[in-house]
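Researcher: Quick one. two chains, 375 residues in total.
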Amino acid sequence: MNHNLELKLQAWVDGELSPAEARGVGEALASDAEGNSFAAELRSVRAAMAGQEMPRSVPETRDFYWSKIARQIEREAPTPQAVHARPLAGWQRWLASAAGFAALACVLLLALKPFAPPTTFDEISATGEGMEAVTFHDQSAGMTVVWLQDPSQVEQPASDAMPAPDSEQGTVEME
Amino acid sequence: MSKHHDKSACSDVDLVGWAQKGDMTAFEELVGRHRDKIYARAYSMMRNEDEALDLSQEAWVKGWQRLVQFQGDSSFVTWMTRIVINLCLDQLRKHKRQRAESIEAMEEESGGVERHMPVITPNPTEGLERAELRVRIDRALGQLSHEHRTVLVLHEFEELEYKEIAKRMGCSIGTVMSRLFYARRRMASLLAALKREDSR
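Model:
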């Protein structure tokens, strides 16, 4: 029996399978002597152990045992609510104030800055692995130019070649 | 109710309610009532008296600190048992980090000798008195690895499902199933050996 089947059998014994899976295992076991033996062994251990934890007594007197707990409680948290009502530490208070001021400053900056779209945009050059794109936009002329180029497909005569001093891909340098 | 009232006759629910309001004497009564059970669970997992004692006391301190979170969804002792189990699992993880990777540890997942053991029949615990059965199970548990013992304690004593055990032990459900399978096989073999030993 392979290990996956063994684990499935165990899940069946433990009632961890869906009803459909459990039915399947039950049917398979009808003609599987080895599987039945495994299932019986797993069941016997499970049944033997259920609720059979050995009872044990604390090897100290009640008062002594409690005194150690009480001392630690007094040291750490005299009341149960103390854990939740714990005040912020000094650095946490400082950080909270700083974060508040920063958020306020951001809001003021955004509110005071007039919205003015730029009249011109710089050229943008994007170089991917296979494709190169260059854009130019002039608001006053109302014009946008997008230049797409696959460097591997372009034959570059010496006189027409775009300058590409820094890159094998031929990055365009604009002034 | 007065703090000086005899609390031994009060229910856990009442005691928890007073303790949540800061009544230490109510909490002391809860500790007195359930300390053995919490200690026994810590011992089952750690198999060491000093560690079980320390962890059980730590659990009570944690219990007090978190008492306002207790909503009564389970019994108070079940809630406390979960706290001590988590502390034991943390402690076992620390042990594991300190332990060198041994052949035994590597065999945990693959089953080691349990893979090749014959199926144990008949049932080695058949006909045993309850007290004797407990003693044998306890002796056998003491001979298991931490991983095998933990998964058995969580499944057979705490009655947790695979998913919950995996969450608590910080491993996959597959690992839990595999550990549980080999732990049971080993347990069956140890119980059979104890039976043979006692019948000589």
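The beta strands of chain A are 120-127, 132-138, 143-149.
Researcher: Thanks, that's what I needed.
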